[in-house]
């Protein structure tokens, strides 16, 4: 093993870009991971498929990068490496930069970067960045070659728990009355349902049953009524909350020279924070009122539109005809593209910044729509990470 060896844990897009960049700079690079789909043949660097649970054989490494897509895994690997090699320099990626700062206080020779923060800064810089004279409409595209992630529908966990309790309760009591009262399975199930819904018809009763059966029947009725009330209360609360948010979200925003941010994920929330630091007025468009980062948006009391940003009406409601810029950072290429095209038609003077994952699609946009200002979020992170190798020759 060479003394100049650099280890990279993780075949994320940041990791692969970093490996290529370091290799071109003359470093010997070894990439370690165990992905479901192995990466394409390496371009000058060495790849080894291995478990990430217990890093070993790093005696000759002079620098270790940990750049998987999971913060928890990155931290666990960093702690494992530090435990085995106390003086080995470690650089990791973390979405939560505040956590990284706290770790840096406790670990020596430890550094980190936040790709989402770096990308957010580039997105915000694109608003006022100078452009070439050939660019027709002042549009810009940020390219990040990562897979598209589709949002999944989720039921309220409290409602789900109440329903599960309801089902389990009916199953156990059906089994009990089947054996205790000598009822057939169908009759036992029928009897339990009449008890739980408190609509007993008198055809089956516990009048002549044992004390235990009467107690269980009484508890079943009380538990069923209480649980049913809880389920309806939770559903009503969810519907009212959604209706209220939609009502608030449909209000037309009366602003001018503001920046509209679409897609509130880990990058979107960082974009908002960066814009606010620079004194910009921000309006938010998001189609998921229960998104992970939406509470932070509500706490900031930012004007918010709950709706589909692909619709012209939604952009108008957000005040885009009078806006300074629009930044769309959803996780879907076609959504961002459609938003960008509609925005260009609605307000050609505003700067439009889109997050496009597919590099070939972005390249086509550059050729067909004269969109020249482009950068890659993963390339930005790789460039920043590569600086640590230069600082430690």
Characterization of the model:
- There is one protein chain.
- By secondary structure, the protein is an alpha/beta fold.
- The protein folds into 3 domains: 5-113, 3-Layer(aba) Sandwich (Rossmann fold), CATH 3.40.50.720; 119-143 and 251-376, 3-Layer(aba) Sandwich (Rossmann fold); 157-248, Helix Hairpins.
- Helices cover 48% and strands 15% of the residues.
- The chain has 13 helices and 13 strands.
- It has helices at 13-24, 71-84, 97-106, 115-128, 157-180, 185-196, 211-249, 266-277, 294-299, 312-317, 333-346, 359-369, 377-391, and strands at 5-9, 28-33, 46-49, 63-66, 90-93, 110-113, 139-143, 259-262, 282-286, 304-306, 325-328, 351-356, 373-376.
- The strands form 2 sheets. A 7-stranded parallel beta sheet has the order 10-9-8-11-12-7-13, sandwiched between helices. It has a 6-stranded parallel beta sheet with strand order 3-2-1-4-5-6, with helices on both faces.
- Helix 1 (13-24) crosses helix 13 and helix 4 (115-128) packs across helix 8.
- The radius of gyration is 29 Å and the shape is flat.
- The two termini are 17 Å apart.
- Mean pLDDT is 81; it is low at 133-138 and 145-153.
Helix and strand layout, with pairings?
Elements: E1 5-9, H1 13-24, E2 28-33, E3 46-49, E4 63-66, H2 71-84, E5 90-93, H3 97-106, E6 110-113, H4 115-128, E7 139-143, H5 157-180, H6 185-196, H7 211-249, E8 259-262, H8 266-277, E9 282-286, H9 294-299, E10 304-306, H10 312-317, E11 325-328, H11 333-346, E12 351-356, H12 359-369, E13 373-376, H13 377-391
Parallel strand pairs: 1-2, 1-4, 2-3, 4-5, 5-6, 7-12, 7-13, 8-9, 8-11, 9-10, 11-12
Helix pairs in contact: 1-13, 4-8, 4-13, 5-6, 5-7
């Amino acid at each position: 093993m060479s003394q100049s060896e650099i280890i990279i844990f993780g075949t994320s897009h940041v990791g692969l870009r970093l490996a290529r960049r370091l290799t071109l700079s003359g470093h010997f690079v070894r990439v370690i991971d165990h992905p479901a789909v192995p990466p394409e043949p390496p371009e000058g660097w060495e790849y080894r498929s291995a478990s990430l649970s217990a890093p070993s054989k790093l005696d000759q490494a002079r620098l270790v990068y940990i750049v998987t897509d999971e913060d928890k895994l990155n931290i666990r690997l960093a702690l494992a490496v530090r435990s085995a090699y106390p003086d080995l320099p470690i650089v990791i990626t973390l979405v939560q930069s505040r956590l990284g700062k706290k770790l840096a206080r406790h670990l020596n020779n430890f550094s980190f970067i936040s790709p989402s923060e770096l990308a957010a800064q580039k997105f915000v810089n694109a608003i006022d960045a100078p452009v070439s004279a050939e660019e027709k409409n002042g549009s810009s595209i940020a390219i990040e070659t990562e897979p598209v992630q589709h949002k999944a529908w989720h039921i309220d966990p409290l409602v789900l728990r109440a329903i599960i309790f309801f089902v389990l309760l009916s199953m156990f009591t059906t089994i009990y009355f089947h054996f205790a009262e000598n009822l057939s399975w169908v009759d036992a199930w029928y009897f339990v349902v009449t008890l739980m819904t408190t609509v007993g018809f008198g055809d089956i009763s516990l009048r002549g049953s044992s004390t235990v059966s009467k107690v269980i029947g009484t508890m079943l009725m009380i538990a069923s009524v209480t649980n049913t009330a809880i389920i309806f209360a939770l559903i009503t609360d969810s519907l009212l909350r959604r209706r209220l948010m939609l009502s608030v979200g449909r209000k037309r925003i009366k602003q001018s020279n503001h920046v509209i941010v679409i897609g509130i994920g880990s990058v979107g929330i960082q974009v908002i924070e960066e814009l606010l630091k620079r004194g910009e007025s921000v309006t938010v468009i998001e189609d998921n009122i229960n998104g992970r980062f939406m509470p932070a948006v509500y706490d900031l009391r930012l004007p918010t539109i709950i709706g589909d940003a692909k619709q012209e009406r939604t952009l108008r409601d957000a005040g885009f005809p009078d806006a300074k810029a629009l930044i769309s950072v959803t996780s879907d290429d076609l959504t961002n593209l459609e938003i960008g095209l509609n925005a260009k038609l609605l307000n050609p003077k505003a700067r439009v910044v889109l997050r496009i994952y597919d590099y070939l699609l972005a390249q086509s946009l550059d050729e067909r729509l004269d969109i020249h200002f482009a950068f890659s979020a993963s390339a930005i992170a790789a460039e920043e990470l590569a600086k640590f190798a230069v600082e430690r020759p």
